[in-house]
Amino acid sequence: MSRPLLRVRGLSKTFPGVRALQDVSLTVSSGEVVALLGHNGSGKSTLVKILAGVYDADEGAEIQVPAPESSGRGLHFIHQDLGLIASLTAVENIDLAKHLKNRALRPFRTRQERSHAKDLLARFGTDLDVTVPVSGLSPTERTLVAIARALGDWQSTHNVLILDEPTAALNADGVGSLFTAVRRLAADGTGVLFISHRLEEVVELADRVVVLRDGRVAAERLRGDFDRASLTELIAGGHLESHRTVSGRDFGPIRLRVEEVTGPELAGVSFTARAGEVVGISGLLGSGAETLTGAVFGSSARTSGRVLVDGTAIPPENPGAAVKTGVVLAPADRRRLGAFVTMTARENITLPLLSPLRRASGRLDFRAEKREARQWMDDVDVRPRGSIEKPFGLFSGGNQQKIVLGKWLRTRPKVLLLEEPTQGVDVGALAGIYQLIETAAADGAAVVVASSDTEELCRLCDRVLVLGQGRITAALSGRGLTEAELVRATLGGAEAAHPSFAHGGSR
Ligand SMILES: Nc1ncnc2c1ncn2[C@@H]1O[C@H](COP(=O)(O)OP(=O)(O)OP(=O)(O)O)[C@@H](O)[C@H]1O
Ligand SMILES: [Mg+2]
């Protein structure tokens, strides 16, 4: 029989005004992959942070962790916010623990460490620059650095690996590599605790699932005793209607015209999006799919080409001008670029558009502001309900994502640019968020969605553009837009580049 490596009994955690965890018990045994599931704000990351020593549990909890090895740790983490030090390079982040222990931070950039870091990252198909501060890397690249750090340097396999939504920013390729690595570790006796909102991954990987609801264990199931539908029900606490698929809506005139845009990873991309149309962007790491929306909006570099909104050109690298023209971007990197972390949810939501909330005197109508913030937070299903005065940074990951979305949807933009719009969003809130995005389109916005989630692109988009080597390599729409086709086109996207696919697709 496999032996328990991690054992938690009677774990509770109270934050001011919130009982994040109540009497939670959980065991992870050697060789076992346990998925920890639950709606946004159900307490998953709080549990992980208690195990990591970031928070203390309330009195009375019993926590038994694998004994630290003589020269290693018993628990290895990939945190939801990754826990990297932004100003350090990938090499430094990967070797941080070792160096802190040796108290020798100086001779960091030795050739050996650099090639070690490169080797670890190569397993995930990336050759990112390991010598630049990780703050300059994309969210996907930073995830890979955090994974490489957690998976590197194991002294013994009788440890527990804890992954808090490691796949939120990964495409199918990265997920595949990660799962292969996780399975190998589990086969060697490692215990794995895995958090994800992508239920197909859970079904694929987990031996057992533990579902939290409002901080308590609501259900526990063994492999064979759960499938995607039953997990959805357990997490959302009720049956969910399946989503419609887009079928030949009428679009309005062209709202967004992108002409031969170049920039980081972009070798000349042209496409249009009409009022009412939802256009998806797909592509592997380095294909340009991650940088295109930023280049269009102006939050990242655009070295040449034009972006026109209703015929008016918007200048490069000038997000302020873009917003004035009616273009908004909800970025993948929500904590850094999407919100003001120390401001309240209410302030974050109302700040981009205050004019409708002003009285004739010019003063802000505080009651109207509160009402509107509360309405939008309910619309995007932020939990806990009504927590409009809570600082943004104290919301759970998925709830932060919902607030950022609500804030930009509220401005009723002409062009809505979304990166990973539902990263970390629980299955119960998903359909509602898709509905809001569709409503924005139906109200006349041109919507562009960059996502690593092929299922999401198929559900949400009228047309999906696939990028490879900085160019559009395929455009899928109508019946040609299926997950299988999209995965195939995305994996094949690195090979060919036919910019002529860009306009109109098969429509
Ligand atoms: N430092 C904190 N101060 C106050 N409240 C907090 C703090 N950290 C977390 N919370 C609250 O505790 C609850 C649980 O949050 P947690 O981050 O554990 O959720 P989660 O299950 O990881 O959700 P998600 O799926 O969105 O990541 C939430 O209501 C959150 O707002
Ligand atoms: Mg979390």
Structure description:
The protein has 507 residues and is of the alpha/beta class. It has three domains: 4-236, 3-Layer(aba) Sandwich (Rossmann fold), CATH 3.40.50; 252-326 and 413-507, Rossmann fold; 340-410, no CATH class. 32% of the residues lie in helices and 24% in strands. It has 17 helices and 19 strands. The chain has helices at 44-52, 90-94, 96-102, 111-122, 139-151, 172-187, 199-205, 228-236, 292-297, 319-325, 334-338, 345-350, 366-379, 397-409, 427-442, 454-460, 483-492, and strands spanning 4-15, 18-29, 33-38, 62-64, 75-78, 160-164, 191-195, 208-213, 216-222, 254-263, 266-274, 278-283, 304-309, 312-313, 327-330, 415-419, 446-450, 463-468, 471-477. Strands 5-6-7-3-8-9 form a six-stranded mixed sheet, sandwiched between helices. Strand 18 and strand 19 (471-477) form a beta hairpin. The radius of gyration is 23 Å and the shape is globular. The model is unreliable at 241-245 and 496-507 (pLDDT under 50).
Unreliably modeled segments: 241-245, 496-507
CATH top-level class of the largest domain: Alpha Beta
Fraction of residues in β-strands: 15-25%
Tally the helices. 17
Q: How many structural domains are formed by the residues?
A: 3
Query: Helicity level, as a percent range?
Result: 25-40%
- List ligands, each type once: adenosine-5'-triphosphate, magnesium ion
Main sheet overview: 6 strands, mixed
Supply the CATH architecture of the largest domain.
3-Layer(aba) Sandwich
